[in-house]
Amino acid sequence: MTEQYTSDEMMTITAARALNNNSTCFVGIGLPSAAANLARLTHAPDITLIYESGTIETKPQVLPLSIGDGELCESALTTVSVPEMFRYWLQGGHIDVGFLGTAQVDRYGNINTTVIAASHKDSGPDGAHSYANPKVRLPGGGGAPEISTNAKEVIITVRHSKRTFVKDVDFITTLGFGRDGQGRKGKSTLGKGPTLVISDLCILKPEDETNELIVVSLHPGVTKQQVIDATGWDIRFADTLQTTDEPTSSEIEVLRELKRVTEAAHSQTETA
Amino acid sequence: MTLFTTLSKAIEDGVKDGDTVALEGFTHLIPFAAGHEIIRQGRRNLTLVRMTPDLIYDQLVGAGCVSKLVFSWGGNPGVGSLHRVRDAIEHGYPAPLEIEEHSHAAMANAYEAGASGLPMAVFRGYVGSDLQHVNPNIKTVTCPFTGEALAAVPSIKPDVGIVHAQKADRAGNVLIEGILGVQKEVVLSSRYSIVTVEEIVDDLEAGPNSCVLPAWTINAIATVPFGAKPSYTHGYYPRDNSYYKKWDSISREREPFLKWLDEEVFQAGE
């Protein structure tokens, strides 16, 4: 029998399982970082984790609070400059998977980490209206706009709610498949884009041709109605809808230990 | 001129009102002490350039030194918002703040182009991003050989570049180790460069491929132990993650921030 787990743990563990042992993964901070390191500590010990601070093949013992914590550098095979990271390693085509979090994602996998518009009428097709009329100012793009287009594929992980899963993002910070789902068509120098979106309720994939995100697997105990209620568009479900495998007790144990040592490390005050 | 100087003299000589200044350091080696000295000297109307504004620009913006911010990711990493920057953007407090927003790839390329003496950077970026609709400094150029449309941004060439580093030798050569960020690029692209170091040593003990900035690329060096705190210096002291978390409550409202500014910056002195 599997022990009790939270929906957040379910999400992180499912996201970790999406990564394989042979891939080179460019890791965003937060949820992706937790999942990527969980993968490394469980089924994918040889996975290559790369952070935009320039650290290559990093193996942190505690999760970094920022993208450039010393732990990432100390446990890395090598550390390169930030221009080299973005030019040679990302743009040069050495990244299999870009692993991203977001504030908003829309039905075509577009990501918004720039501004939430003041109201729906303030959002427009090119994002400029939202940008000029923000209700919430978010941190901005960081590495994501080029990770999403230069990595061979993208995995997104984000908690499910009507505020995060919106029909159209207020601002496309980072390209999924564009406003009409065809934003990558004919652009041979770009990666495949989002291939998987993992939330705390379900797993979504872009549908063939339309590239609209549809639910392919519900996490154990989650109903279709829950997903419908938490999604800002008329969400569709795959004909062969799966149920996501439950977390194993060892996955739960490793994740909780990782969170515990991380929490302990981050609450320490470093004195001069 | 004397290469070795005090921090206050370095800032007094190097940073003028209205300058474009880049205090860099990607999470690591952020020159906080130098930023605080700029606040104490009351500089105004600065254009500040930094990939991740971090707490250091939140402090400079909150102190009223800044009229424009050029950046690519403006949060408190792992914690939340930069409240002083938001207050300036949303309410014009303590002064209106113009922003020019990029992606990391764009800024890293723009620094490299600046160090390379080029007028612009070319890279495969901003594809499908609305950032190009809100930032007129993002343009497209066509590759003359393949016809591919590529992104172009102006190179970054600050009036003053400021970084922190581990150590300098007695001749003023500087060694940087750990996460390198754009430290080398900002020193080489700036008209005037200031480096604060943890210590001066007889021998840098640098390997053949180490990141070393020769003395003749630097205008002023000041020894400032712990000059990057609460950021960190690899090999000297770790990042004070708890301070980054605490900053959220210090900076959220104006009053506690102003109290912090008075106690930790103005009264602290160099």
From TrEMBL, chain A:
Its EC number is 2.8.3.6. It is an enzyme of class 2 (transferase). Keywords: Transferase. InterPro entries: CoA_trans_fam_I (IPR004165), NagB/RpiA_transferase-like (IPR037171). Coiled coil: none annotated. GO terms for molecular function: 3-oxoadipate CoA-transferase activity. Gene3D superfamilies: Glutaconate Coenzyme A-transferase. This is 3-oxoadipate CoA-transferase subunit B.
